[in-house]
């Protein structure tokens, strides 16, 4: 079993991003959303649950990366996994 040296950074050392970003679509909320193909589905459709789950996992990986020593061999591997998750999301959004 290999050992990895992971350095936990303080919040002051981690990159800062805006807390809130507002998006206005000007179409209102009718309880549906569009897939990449333009097909509209209910917001409670399983496809949006899957997209949200892959996004959350990617976010957690990004958070882990932000707290790691940039020289850690895990950083590159986790970034590769994030790229694969983007591919998964693209495939889910274009059924």
From TrEMBL:
Protein name: Cobalamin adenosyltransferase-like domain-containing protein
Recorded superkingdom: Eukaryota
The UniProt record lists the keyword Transport: no
Family stated for the protein in its record: Belongs to the Cob(I)alamin adenosyltransferase family.
Cobalamin adenosyltransferase-like domain residues: 23-95
Keywords: ATP-binding, Nucleotide-binding, Transferase
GO MF entry, a single one: corrinoid adenosyltransferase activity
Range of residues in the leader sequence: none
Phylogenetic classification of the source organism: Eukaryota, Fungi, Fungi incertae sedis, Zoopagomycota, Kickxellomycotina
């Amino acid at each position: 079993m290999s050992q990895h040296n992971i350095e936990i950074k303080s919040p002051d050392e981690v990159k800062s991003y805006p807390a809130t970003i507002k998006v206005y679509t000007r179409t209102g909320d009718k309880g549906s959303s569009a897939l990449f193909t333009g097909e509209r589905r209910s917001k409670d459709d399983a496809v949006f649950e899957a997209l949200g789950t892959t996004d959350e996992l990617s976010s957690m990986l990004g958070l882990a990366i932000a707290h790691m020593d940039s020289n850690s061999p895990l950083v590159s591997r986790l970034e590769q996994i994030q790229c694969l998750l983007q591919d998964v999301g693209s495939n889910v959004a274009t059924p």
